[in-house]
C-alpha cells in the first residue's frame, strides 16, 4: 500500500525519510546474504520463524451468523469487522487482476519484496523531499494486516502499524519467509480477505455485498476496479459519497493499469471507463437489535444466546474473550427455537393492554430431556428505541427513567442479570420433590390447619389462602390446592435446606442479596418461607426446572442452540473436566432425583391442572382446573401468586414440553397485578401447550411405582 506524505518541519524530516528508505533498500538487497545486522541474532531468527509459522495459520476475523432453526434463514450477524472468508476460486478473476494492477503489478515476479519497487520509491521520495511512493508489496501489506489482526495487546497493534524503519525491515523479512511457505494464490486469497474497503467492509466478500449486493464471483471488471481502487484510501475514494469524482478517477487508473498488464483490452477499458459507478448498497445487520421485523420477538432469544455464550468456557477464559470470539470467530449458530411453538407463545402472551401495559406477561418453553429452549415470548417489542416509552412506574427510579414498555431489550424472561420475580407457590415443587426423593410417599398425610405454628422455623406461623384448605391433606391434595401449611410441615420433615439445594441442582440461582443470604449454609435450615416462593426466579429457570421433572428427574442445562459450527464447518467443541471432547451445542444432562420420585411429583402435579392422577385423589378441587380441558391431553403444573398478587405464575408441562409464564411489573415489583390477572399466565401456558402440540400424538405420563405411592 502506498505511503501517504507526512507534513515536514524544515529539512529534517525529508532527510530522515531518505535515510529510512535507503536503509530499507540496503536491507532488502542484502537479505539473506547478511542477516539484518542487529536483527540477525539467533533469537531474532527464531522469533521471526515462529512469527512466520503463525502467519501461515492465521486467519482474519470473520463474522458469526445466527440462523433460524431451518439452518438457512439468517436472523442476524455478530461482528466488529464485517467479513466472510472466501476461497480464491470463488472470486472473479476480475478482482484478482484488479487488486494486482492497483497495488503490486510485479506481484507474480518478486519473492515477497520487490527490489525494483524499493529502488523506484527511494528515488521518487528523494526527489520529492517526502514520501510520494511506497514500496510495500501485496505480501508485505498482508503481513502488516495479519500482524495487526492477530495482535492481542495494544503494544502488538502499535508494533504492527507504526511508521518506523525497524517495522518495515521486519515486515520485509516476514514477507520473504512467508513466500517460501505459501503460494502466490494463497497470499492473494488472504490479502483479499483481509483488506479494508471502507463502509465497514472487511475483505472482498463484504465489499462485494455492501457496495454491489453480489458475491465476489460475480464482480464485473468495472466493479472490481472500483473496489480495488478503494484499498489505497477507503474514505478518499468512497463511491458511496455524494461526489464520485475521485472514486471514478481512481477506478479509471486501475482499469488503465489492468490494460497495461494485459488483463483487459484497450477497447474493453474504454467501454468500462465510459460507465458510471452503479452502486447497489447493502447494510448488513449486526447484533440482536437488527433482527428482521417479522422475527422481532426472537430478539429476546438472541439476547439470551449472547448471555449464554458469555458464560461458556469453550469460547474463552472470561466474558470479554468469549464475546470477542462471537464477533470475530466466524461461527454458524442455529437457534433452538421451534417456529411453531414460538408462534404459539407469541399468540398467547398478553395483558390488559398488550405492549402498552406496565405488566409484563412472558412465557418460556423448554424441551424435557434436552434443555433446549423452544420459545421465548413477552408482551414487549424488542427494540433499543425507548423514546416513546412512558416513565417508569417505580417512584424510586428517578424522574427521567423510562419504563420497559412497549420497547425494551431487558432480559425479562431470564438468562441475563435481572433477578426475576417472586414465583410464589410454584416453589412447592422443590420440597415435594426432595421429600419424595428422600423416601416419603405421595400419601404422606397431615391435618393442615388454617394457621400453622412452626416448630422449626423460630415460631413462624404462615396461613393458607383460604379456610377451605383446612383438613387432612396428602401430596396430591396439598399440591393441587396449594396448601401452605401442609408444605411448611412437609418442609420440616426433610429440612428446608433439602429443597433449597435441590432447587439449585435444578438450575435456580440466587441473584439478590437477600436470597443469597437466606440460601447460605448458615441460614438455609431456617428458610421456611422458601416453599412459599419468596425468592426471585426467572421463567427460563422455572420452565427448565419443571422440564427435569417431566424428564423423569433428568435435569438438562438450558441451552438456546441446536448447533454451533466453527468457520471450517466442524461442530464447536469443548473439553470436559475429565478430558472428554464434547460438542458445545449438545445437551448437558444429569440425573438429579430418581425417576420414580419425579414420576410421583408429576402424579401430584396433575392435580392443580384438573387432570386425573394415576394413583391418588386430588381432594375435590384445584387452583387451575381449566388447564386440562384447554390442553386436551395429560398435563401437570402449578400455580403461584405472591403477597397482594404482586406477581402471578403458572408452570405447566406435558411429556414433550414444559412452559413457565408470569405476569408482573418488572420496573416496580410493588405494583400489584391484582387477582383479576392471575389467570393470565395460566391461560398463556395452557393455550401455548395446546397450540404447540396440535396434531401431535398424545403421550401419557409414566405412573409412579406403588412403593412411592404409599
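^ C-alpha cells above, recovered residues below v
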Amino acid at each position: 500500500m502506498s505511503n501517504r506524505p507526512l507534513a515536514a518541519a524544515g529539512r529534517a524530516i525529508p532527510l530522515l525519510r531518505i535515510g529510512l528508505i535507503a536503509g530499507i533498500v540496503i536491507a532488502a538487497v542484502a537479505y539473506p546474504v547478511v542477516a539484518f545486522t542487529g536483527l540477525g541474532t539467533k533469537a531474532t531468527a527464531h522469533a521471526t520463524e515462529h512469527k512466520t509459522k503463525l502467519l501461515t495459520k492465521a486467519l482474519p476475523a470473520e463474522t458469526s451468523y445466527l440462523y433460524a432453526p431451518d439452518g438457512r434463514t439468517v436472523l442476524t450477524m455478530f461482528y466488529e469487522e464485517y467479513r466472510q472468508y472466501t476461497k480464491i476460486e470463488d472470486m472473479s478473476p476480475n478482482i484478482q487482476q484488479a487488486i494486482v494492477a492497483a497495488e503490486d503489478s510485479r506481484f507474480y515476479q518478486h519473492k515477497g519484496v520487490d527490489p525494483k519497487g524499493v529502488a523506484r520509491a527511494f528515488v521518487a521520495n528523494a526527489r520529492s523531499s517526502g514520501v510520494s511512493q511506497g514500496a510495500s508489496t501485496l505480501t508485505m501489506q498482508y503481513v502488516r494486516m495479519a500482524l495487526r489482526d492477530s495482535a492481542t495487546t495494544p503494544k502488538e497493534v502499535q508494533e504492527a502499524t507504526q511508521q518506523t524503519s525497524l517495522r518495515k525491515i521486519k515486515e520485509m523479512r516476514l514477507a520473504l519467509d512467508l513466500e517460501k511457505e505459501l503460494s502466490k494464490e494463497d497470499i492473494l486469497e488472504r490479502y483479499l480477505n483481509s483488506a479494508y474497503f471502507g463502509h465497514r467492509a472487511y475483505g472482498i466478500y463484504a465489499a462485494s455485498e455492501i457496495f454491489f449486493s453480489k458475491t465476489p464471483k460475480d464482480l464485473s471488471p468495472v466493479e472490481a476496479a472500483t473496489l480495488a481502487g478503494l484499498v489505497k484510501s477507503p474514505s478518499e475514494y468512497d463511491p458511496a459519497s455524494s461526489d464520485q469524482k475521485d472514486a471514478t478517477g481512481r477506478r479509471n487508473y486501475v482499469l488503465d493499469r489492468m490494460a497495461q498488464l494485459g488483463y483487459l483490452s484497450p477497447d474493453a477499458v474504454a467501454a468500462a471507463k465510459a460507465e458510471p459507478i452503479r452502486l447497489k448498497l447493502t447494510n448488513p445487520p449486526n447484533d440482536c437489535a437488527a433482527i428482521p421485523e417479522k422475527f422481532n420477538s426472537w430478539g429476546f432469544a438472541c439476547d439470551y444466546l449472547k448471555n449464554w455464550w458469555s458464560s461458556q468456557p469453550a469460547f474463552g477464559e472470561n466474558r470479554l474473550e468469549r464475546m470477542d470470539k462471537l464477533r470475530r470467530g466466524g461461527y454458524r449458530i442455529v437457534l433452538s427455537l421451534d417456529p411453531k411453538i414460538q408462534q404459539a407463545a407469541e399468540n398467547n402472551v398478553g395483558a390488559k393492554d398488550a405492549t402498552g401495559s406496565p405488566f409484563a406477561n412472558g412465557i418460556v418453553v423448554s424441551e424435557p430431556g434436552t434443555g433446549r429452549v423452544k420459545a421465548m415470548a413477552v408482551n414487549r417489542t424488542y427494540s433499543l428505541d425507548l423514546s416513546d416509552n412512558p416513565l417508569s412506574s417505580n417512584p424510586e427510579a428517578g424522574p427521567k427513567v423510562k419504563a420497559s414498555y412497549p420497547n425494551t431489550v431487558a432480559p425479562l424472561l431470564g438468562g441475563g442479570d435481572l433477578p426475576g420475580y417472586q414465583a410464589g407457590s410454584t416453589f412447592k415443587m422443590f420440597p415435594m420433590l426432595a421429600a419424595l426423593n428422600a423416601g416419603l410417599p405421595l400419601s404422606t398425610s397431615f391435618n393442615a390447619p388454617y394457621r400453622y405454628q412452626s416448630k422449626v422455623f423460630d415460631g413462624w406461623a404462615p396461613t393458607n389462602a383460604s379456610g377451605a384448605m383446612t383438613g387432612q391433606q396428602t401430596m396430591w391434595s396439598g399440591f393441587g390446592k396449594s396448601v401452605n401449611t401442609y408444605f411448611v410441615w412437609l418442609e420440616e420433615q426433610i429440612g428446608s435446606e433439602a429443597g433449597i439445594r435441590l432447587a439449585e441442582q435444578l438450575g435456580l440461582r440466587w441473584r439478590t442479596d437477600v436470597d443469597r443470604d437466606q440460601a447460605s449454609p448458615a441460614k438455609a435450615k431456617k428458610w421456611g418461607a422458601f416453599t412459599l416462593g419468596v425468592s426471585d426466579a426467572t421463567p427460563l429457570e422455572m420452565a427448565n426446572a419443571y422440564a427435569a421433572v417431566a424428564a423423569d428427574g433428568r435435569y438438562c442445562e438450558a441451552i438456546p442452540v441446536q448447533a454451533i459450527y466453527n468457520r471450517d464447518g466442524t461442530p464447536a467443541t469443548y473439553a470436559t473436566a475429565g478430558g472428554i471432547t464434547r460438542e458445545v451445542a449438545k445437551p448437558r444432562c444429569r440425573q438429579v432425583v430418581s425417576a420414580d420420585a419425579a414420576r410421583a411429583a408429576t402424579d401430584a402435579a396433575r392435580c392443580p391442572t384438573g387432570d386425573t392422577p394415576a394413583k391418588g385423589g386430588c381432594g375435590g378441587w384445584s387452583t387451575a382446573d381449566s388447564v386440562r380441558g384447554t390442553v386436551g391431553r395429560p398435563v401437570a403444573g402449578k400455580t403461584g401468586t405472591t403477597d397482594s398478587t404482586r406477581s402471578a405464575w403458572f408452570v405447566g408441562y406435558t411429556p414433550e414440553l414444559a412452559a413457565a409464564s408470569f405476569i408482573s411489573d418488572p420496573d416496580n415489583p410493588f405494583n400489584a397485578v391484582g387477582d383479576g390477572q392471575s389467570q393470565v399466565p395460566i391461560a398463556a401456558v395452557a393455550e401455548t401447550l395446546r397450540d404447540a402440540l396440535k396434531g401431535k400424538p398424545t403421550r401419557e405420563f409414566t405412573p409412579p411405582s406403588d412403593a412411592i405411592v404409599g
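Residues 12-30 form the longest helix (19 residues).
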